């Protein structure tokens, strides 16, 4: 009970209350009491839903999320196999680098892709600038790592004896994959796909830069209505639409996942690994696909970002952009240096990751239970969907909600908006669902009879948790810590509302530099983005070490 009460209380205070307060205020006239039902006016629903623009935006949101998810899963499965089921030199380094795009600021990635695709860029002749294809490519760039790490972390722990038995009976490698491996991976694939869909549906900076007004989404429309037009009523209606979309996705994902879940035989992470051999057709195909994605889709934009950070506007090579990181600059509009912002980002991400892993781990433990009663199983499915809602709510909504509710939280004479606590809390709210989806597939694969046997032998609930669930959960915690820390480092939407000028994080500084005129500010922004990428890669490599996967990676 306590394991469920703590995360429910945390999310009720720091997610439900701020979001509900903002949504409710959008449905009352100016000056009316927000929580007085008699003052509510729902005419905004009919007004917003009657606009053709609204349905065009909803359609584009679903289309880009669907295509982005399908491509991410199709490309990510070979990557999960190569990076988590096979051994090769420098594997840990490649794993860390693959994750870097996931946490880069969306605005920076949008600029990087735009510079590649715009006229005069390396791919300018393809005519992809400002197209649907450009947006989808950037979304796959972000979410490839979600599929690789979520599915790969689970795949690495599957007992290979079922695959070996099928192969010994004459099944071809492709048949083994189709009939044995993919069914076993189905829960992890469903978890990864639901995460990717929500990330694609709520993408903000990338869509705003690459799509403009032509390819707006619900997320960008909420931002525009809130910040530029102060139209809280329309923003509230769009937030409700976004919540409905998220609820449907989570319900479908839960049904797809639970219909294929079963207790699986797990093994030590290294038991099923084998050395990559390009003479095997399956290894060759997976390696080629993974190599093309890592080099072409992930590496090229990042390399282009690095090259541009070392050049002036005229193309001359220079270190000046990196020299500028140590001073705010008279035309940058900043009160802190990039290095100071980087230190703030690290401190904030450390607190946010600790909160996310603590709360997310408790959620995963609760939701992974298998009650015997139908009502108990239904209750857990509802809880699972509730705990995933932060992924589908606009980060702008969360940040704005904090501003209007945390001046006197719970009636206390304390203005949290002036403290440094809200930024890591907001980042933790965003990271918690990712922690849950990283840990949950492993816990759900534990045969409940093992827990029952341990309890029958006299083990206390705490000892059963420590001896049965604990060792398996610990394997996934390295991934969870890395993801939570990385997401916090790159979080921008809510942080941009809450961070003060003297405590700005690195993504906020990059965004502000890009928004300022002048080639010097733009070059400094690119150099700062490279610094963020290096920090992220270092964090993910450390997470791999914490995961205990040392042999053969370096």
Automatic annotation (TrEMBL):
PROSITE patterns: ABC_TM1. Residues 58-253, 342-543 form the ABC transmembrane type-1 domain. Pfam families: BPD_transp_1. It is found in: Cell inner membrane; Cell membrane. GO terms for cellular component: plasma membrane. InterPro entries: MetI-like (IPR000515), MetI-like_sf (IPR035906). It is a multi-pass membrane protein. Belongs to the binding-protein-dependent transport system permease family. The chain crosses the membrane at residues 58-84, 96-118, 130-151, 184-212, 232-252, 284-303, 349-367, 379-404, 424-443, 476-499, 522-543. GO terms for biological process: transmembrane transport. The keyword ATP-binding does not apply. It comes from Flavimobilis marinus. The lineage of its organism: Bacteria, Bacillati, Actinomycetota, Actinomycetes, Micrococcales. Keywords: Cell inner membrane, Cell membrane, Membrane, Transmembrane, Transmembrane helix, Transport. PANTHER family: INNER MEMBRANE ABC TRANSPORTER PERMEASE PROTEIN YDCV. This is Thiamine transport system permease protein.
